[in-house]
């Protein structure tokens, strides 16, 4: 059997890409796992501690524990990477750090997006639109949140699935 693609291979390619651009990649040793929003908060804290020129590269697959919805006709759109991104936004709030969380298959859970971009301005911009990160996370309805901000990453199906990827730059890195 020959492996032609894996999460690790994608992370290593991202690491090499960052190095060629003069950045200092930091590959997260621990795979992404556990509840998505909480893992986003952990990754966000790592991003805030990156040195100048530092880029955080992480991969794996988190989970979302759904809770029952009340009311008729209610639906939710979102998934692991959108919840991870929104969890990170809570930590990055007010900073100059930025993060992309995306599924390699081009589709995150029940959303049409592969993932989302988030940075230190995400919560402030959301507040101006009357959006609540806390409410979106509680309802597991994160696609409308990022869609309203214009921060969804929509790629369409990629024809592969090697888990999820997260890339972040710290507040001291400008690209």
Blueprint of the fold:
Layout: H1 7-20, E1 24-27, H2 36-48, E2 54-60, H3 80-92, E3 98-103, E4 115-119, H4 122-128, H5 133-139, H6 143-149, E5 152-153, E6 164-169
Parallel strand pairs: 1-2
Antiparallel strand pairs: 2-6, 3-4, 3-6, 4-5
Helix pairs in contact: 2-3
Structural key phrases:
17% strand; 6 strands; 6 helices; alpha+beta; glycerate kinase, domain 1; 175 residues; 6-stranded mixed β-sheet
Overall average pLDDT: 88
CATH class: Alpha Beta
What's the shape?
A: globular
> What separation lies between the terminal Cα atoms?
40 Å
Question: Can you count the helices?
Answer: 6
Q: Biggest sheet, in brief? A: 6 strands, mixed
Strand % is: 15-25%
And the CATH topology? glycerate kinase, domain 1
| Annotated CATH homologous superfamily | MOFRL domain
Strand arrangement, major sheet: 1-2-6-3-4-5
Order of helices and strands: HEHEHEEHHHEE
Residue ranges: pLDDT <50 for 5 or more in a row? none
Estimate the helix proportion, in percent.
Answer: 25-40%
Count of separate structural domains: 1
- Kindly state the number of beta strands: 6
- Class of secondary structure makeup: alpha+beta
Q: Do you know the CATH architecture?
A: 3-Layer(aba) Sandwich
Please tell me how large the radius of gyration is.
16 Å
């Amino acid at each position: 059997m020959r492996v032609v693609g894996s999460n690790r291979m994608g992370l290593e390619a991202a690491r090499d890409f960052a190095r060629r651009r003069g950045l200092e990649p930091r590959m997260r040793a621990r795979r992404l796992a556990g509840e998505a929003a909480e893992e986003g908060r952990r990754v966000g804290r790592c991003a805030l501690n990156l040195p100048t020129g530092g880029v955080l590269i992480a991969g794996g697959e988190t989970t979302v524990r759904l809770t029952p919805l009340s009311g008729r006709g209610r639906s939710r759109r979102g998934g692991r990477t959108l919840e991870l991104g929104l969890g990170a936004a809570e930590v990055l709030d007010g900073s100059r750090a930025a993060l992309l969380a995306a599924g390699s298959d081009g589709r995150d859970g029940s959303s049409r997006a592969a993932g989302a971009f988030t940075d230190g301005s995400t919560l402030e911009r959301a507040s101006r639109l009357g959006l609540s990160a806390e409410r979106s996370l509680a309802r597991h309805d994160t696609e409308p949140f990022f869609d309203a901000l214009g921060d969804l990453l929509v790629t369409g199906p990629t024809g592969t699935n090697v888990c999820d990827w997260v890339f972040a730059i710290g507040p001291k890195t400008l690209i």
